[in-house]
Design a protein that fits this description.
single chain, 468 residues, alpha/beta, Rossmann fold, Helicase, Ruva Protein, domain 3, 5-stranded parallel β-sheet, binds adenosine-5'-triphosphate, binds magnesium ion
Length: 468
């Protein structure tokens, strides 16, 4: 069912057309000429137009032009008693959907009108997909200059230009989607669509129909033919997010597509060739899912061609200030305000928090603080860093780190500054050694020291490390 505009200056013919269409339960709008048609195009949201070519006040080609200008997704069928090859070619060149000669067989005209409406819907569907694609192609800038993030960027740079399937893993909120966007952006497919689908958001059948498309009537509710995301991503990239949540039947189908590059819509037997690069993300341990029999092993090996692990924020805390600055700018832009600053003690509190929700949690905290506080500076009061969950992997409690001023308070009134700083340095290194189980490379990374600096300091403070 759709809404169709019938344009003909002959009332008798118009009536025949309209009654044919109404019999099939289509909604019909009528126009007695070109000017009338222009008004109708502006007024109604139409799915197709059938127009006569020769009319008192102009031509069907004028109606076609008006339609294309108002809404390029609208399909137009041209009807004429004076069919010439030239006219047929010209109308197609100008974007007509079909060309039918009078006298027409009602069934033929009806079939053409229905195909025209279907075509309009498909084109609109596609542009809807492209809209989500545009949204996905937002910023793909990966912020941070810590060693783990530099390494991540380098890996993205190496893997992007290839066609390899990449399995992006990492805890929730670490930036997996951002990594997928960055890979697409730096690939040769950057000019083509990046289509994303969240496998966790669909039921079994719906996910399959979303990915592979379906024919009309393929299942209850499939009231029209739809192209799948594989087809929509043709020559581009398809990002399968939360891939571990895919059902076993969907996994089997995906495996077939990956093996032969052919996509078959649900309810169809016709296989279509697609050229799609696949990026896959999950916060789950996919290998473990394989062991549990919840994920196909053969598919796992196809997906994990290049594994890419996005580190948790607690492993690159040194990026926190830069990330804070970025989010303060982004939030200010969203709220159309000036970027706020964060007080030193609030930053310190952030630095000592473990962020189980990773970068997304950080961004949310900052956004919430910016919305709730009207102050120029974000303080500890407006930035409530959760304290309850502050335990690190080694089971130590983390306390909000004291600020520099608080440290100064701790220093006895008369004391040698160098000695005080040296004892502080020693304590910090010892704590880091304890937290990492004596892993010196990790300690050096966390403290922003080179390995040789660290070993010099270990010697200087006579610290014995378990691991040498
Ligand atoms: N290195 C980074 N630089 C800048 N912004 C980042 C970085 N990493 C993550 N973000 C931002 O953090 C938020 C969460 O990232 P993203 O959605 O990519 O995480 P995810 O790993 O896909 O999370 P989930 O597992 O919950 O789906 C986004 O707003 C993203 O732009
Ligand atoms: Mg995600």
């Amino acid at each position: 069912m759709g809404k169709i505009l019938v344009v003909d200056d002959e009332p008798h013919l118009r009536r025949i057309l309209i009654s044919n269409l109404k019999q099939e339960h289509h909604e019909v709008v009528e126009a007695a000429g070109v000017n009338d048609a222009r008004r109708a195009i502006a007024e109604y949201s139409l799915d197709a137009i059938i127009t006569d070519q020769k009319m008192g006040d102009g031509e069907g080609l004028d109606v076609l032009a008006a339609a294309r200008e108002a809404d390029p997704t609208l399909s137009v069928v041209l009807l004429t008693a004076f069919a010439t090859i030239e006219l047929a070619v010209e109308s197609m060149r100008r974007g007509a959907f079909d060309f039918i000669t009078k006298p027409f067989v009602p069934e033929v005209l009806l079939a053409s009108a229905e195909r025209a409406m279907e075509h309009t819907r498909l084109v609109r569907e596609n542009s809807r997909l492209r809209d989500t694609v545009v949204r996905l192609e937002g910023s793909s800038e990966i912020t941070g200059c810590s060693a783990p993030i530099r390494e991540l960027r380098a890996k993205i740079g190496r893997v992007a230009p290839t066609n390899a399937t990449v399995l992006i893993t990492g805890e929730t909120g670490t930036g997996k989607e951002l990594v997928a966007r960055a890979i697409h952006r730096s690939s040769t497919r950057a000019g083509k669509p990046l289509v994303a689908v969240n496998c966790a958001a669909f039921t079994e059948t719906l996910l399959e129909s979303e990915l592979f498309g379906h024919e009309r009537g393929a299942f209850t509710g499939a009231d029209r033919t739809r192209e799948g995301l594989f087809e929509a991503a043709h020559e581009g990239t398809l990002f399968l997010d939360e891939a571990a949540e895919m059902s076993l039947p969907a996994q089997a189908k995906l495996l077939r597509v990956l093996t032969d590059g052919l996509v078959t819509r649900l309810g169809s037997t016709k296989a279509r060739r697609t050229d799609v690069r696949l990026l896959v993300a999950t916060h789950r341990d996919l290998k473990q899912r394989v062991e549990e029999g919840r994920f196909r092993e053969d598919l796992y090996y196809r997906l994990a061609v290049v594994p890419l692990m996005v580190p948790p924020l607690r492993d690159h805390r040194e990026d926190l200030p830069e990330l804070c600055a970025l989010f303060l700018r982004q939030v200010a832009q969203d709220l159309k305000t000036r970027p706020r600053r964060i007080t030193a003690d609030a930053t310190q509190a952030l630095l000592s928090y473990d962020f189980p929700g990773n970068i997304r949690e950080l961004r949310n905290l900052i956004e919430r603080a910016c919305i709730l506080s009207t102050e120029e500076e974000i303080t500890l009061e407006t930035l409530p860093v959760p304290g309850a969950r502050k335990t690190d992997g080694a089971g130590h409690r983390n306390y909000a780190a004291p600020t520099a001023a608080q440290f100064a308070e701790m220093m006895p009134e008369t004391h040698d500054l160098r000695e005080f700083l040296a004892s502080l340095e020693k304590a910090v290194i010892q704590r880091a050694l304890k937290m990492t189980g004596g892993a010196q490379a990790e300690v050096a990374r966390r403290l922003g020291l080179s390995r040789s600096d660290l070993s010099y300091k270990l010697g200087k403070h006579r610290i014995k490390s378990a691991e040498t």
